[in-house]
Amino acid sequence: MCHVVWYAANNFVRLPSMLRLWPLGCHARLPVARNGWADSNWNWGSPNGEAHDLAMGLRRKLQTHFAREEWLQDLKAGKADIEELKLALGLCIQHAAREGIDGNGMGWQLMMDMAACKFEGKSGVEALRQDLSRLCANLSARQTSEAATSDQTLELAAANALTGMGFIERGL
After folding, report:
1. Are 72 and 168 in contact (CB under 8 A)?
2. End-to-end Cα, the chain, rounded Å
3. How far apart are CA 98 and CA 13, in angstroms?
4. Helix, strand, or coil (residue 6)
5. 28 to each of 25, 54, 106, 131, 135, how far by Cα in Å?
6. For a surface tag, which of 98, 110, 148, 168 has the fewest beta carbons within 10 Å of its beta carbon?
7. Averaged over 38-48, what is the pLDDT?
8. Helix/strand/coil percentages in the chain, nearest 5
9. Per-residue b or e along 2-29, where b marks 16 or more CB atoms closer than 10 Å to that residue's CB
10. DSSP-based three-state secondary structure for 155
11. CA atoms within 13 Å, Cβ hemisphere of 17
């Protein structure tokens, strides 16, 4: 219901002003990447482009420890958007690589592969799952939340990789 009220309030001039107010308990939804890394306006690493704009919103959304834990639970339950997940991975890897906790450079390579669009399209999800599983195996055992296995889902592999790179403690 919230997004319908927002859409109406922002698209119909004659909507009564009382309907322009957010209903109680309703929060604005942050935009999510639709075309992702292959989009010509993505511009990963640049202060201009969709990646930068969406990164700001995602950092705001996940700015608290509690929000990050809740987001990880949603991710494990399969409720996270794949493009939002890839953006979170890219941002987390940037921090982890600077701190030397990205699995001896494997995280950095994964982020570079994302920028090269290796994980786009139908086969991209499986390739990302495999590379995340390898990354988890290379992260310190104390860092990941669960042991890495080759048969884990994309969501679980991503949650383990993010946890192993300090996502919950440090954020994006």
Report:
1. yes
2. 30
3. 48
4. helix
5. 10, 14, 36, 34, 34
6. 98
7. 78
8. 60, 0, 40
9. eeebbeeeeeeeeeeeeeeeeeeeeeee
10. helix
11. 0
User: pTM of the predicted model, to two decimals?
Assistant: 0.74
Which H or E run contains 128?
helix 122-138
- Spatial separation of the C-alpha atoms in residues 27 and 12, rounded to whole Å: 20
Please state, in angstroms and rounded to a whole number, the distance separating the CA atoms of residues 164 and 144: 4
- Identify residue 168 by its one-letter amino acid code: I
Count how many residues are written for the chain. 172
Residue pLDDT, tens place only, 82-128: 889 999 999 999 999 999 999 999 999 999 999 888 998 888 999 99
- Comparing CA positions, the residue from 20, 53, 36 lying closest to residue 116 is 36
